[in-house]
């Protein structure tokens, strides 16, 4: 059984990364990890893939264009 602390994002924790759009998937992952060392970054190719809708307090999804390896959309904590 999990506790509420495992589900709540600390109020001072960064929750979104709009500035990684346009970076390579690895550069974006490094930037996200600099801001949130507990982040579980999921690189999703192709960019319009179907993903689960469950909530995870430290998951960050990067949607990447397969031909250029550039992030086209980065979802915040989801």
If you had to describe this structure to a student in words, what would you say it looks like?
This protein is an alpha+beta fold and 78 residues long. It is built from one helix and three strands; from the N terminus they run H-E-E-E. It has one helix at 25-35; strands spanning 40-44, 59-65, 70-77. Strand 2 and strand 3 (70-77) form a beta hairpin. It is globular and about 40 Å long. The model has no long low-confidence stretch (mean pLDDT 85).
Q: Roughly how many Å apart are the termini?
A: 20 Å
- What is the H/E order? HEEE
Structural class: alpha+beta
Strand arrangement within the widest β-sheet reads 1-2-3
**How many H/I helices?**
1
Low-confidence stretches: none
Task: Give the fraction of residues assigned to helices.
Answer: 10-25%
């Amino acid at each position: 059984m999990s506790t509420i602390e495992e589900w709540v994002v600390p109020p001072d924790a960064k929750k979104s990364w709009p500035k990684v759009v346009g970076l390579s998937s690895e550069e974006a992952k490094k930037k996200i990890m600099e801001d949130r060392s507990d982040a579980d970054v999921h690189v999703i190719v192709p960019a319009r893939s179907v993903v689960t809708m469950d909530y995870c307090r430290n998951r960050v999804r990067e949607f990447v264009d397969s031909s250029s390896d550039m992030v086209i959309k980065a979802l915040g904590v989801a």
